[in-house]
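Researcher: Next sequence.
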Amino acid sequence: MGRRSHPELYRAPFPLYTIQIDPESGLVLTAGGGGAARTGVKNGVHFLRLEQINGKLSASLLHSHDTETRAPINMSLADNVLAVGQDASCHLLKFKIQKPEEKKVPNGPEKAGGKEKGPRKRKPSSSAVKDGGGDTKNETTQVTVEDLQVVQTDFSPDSLQKSVCFSPDRSMIVTGGVDGFVLVWEYPSMKKMLDFKAHNGEIEDLAVDPGNKVQPL
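Model: Next structure:
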């Protein structure tokens, strides 16, 4: 018996480096790109919505945030803020989700004494009316992204931030680079609290436990 094939929900238009899931909104955030090379491959962060449609899982792209010439290769999520590694820097991005709004649409022209009052109005289409009650919904969820701050996190000749992690209590951000150094930043001020040499090689990943103990990998 052959392998079961799974439906493709989403195909990134760039080399995919990192994924985060926002448990509050249920959005999936993907990031990647082609870097500064002039290949035509864009760099960015994608905001995706997953939903069940007719019993099948579907993914739709809500917003694409362009990171220009720098590819996001690592990121960490805390509430609605992303710490994103781009080249030798950590970028803080704040995103806002605006959910669909309801609008009241009259069921028909106002009448007085059996006569229409005012100009004749076009009847809303049946697809726009919810349960015949005259409520319509803007089904598009809007995502906006704001750049908050940028700090350099790797100072070596081949500088590159390889990893980033929020602490569980959101009091600090920890970054690691190809220079083997771990840097601890106060959040949200992004003042450097501590830096130390953790490895002779690159810091591939980071973990912070509930007691704010840092584990470089």
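Model: The chain has no helices and 18 strands. The CA atoms of residues 97 and 143 lie 5 Å apart.
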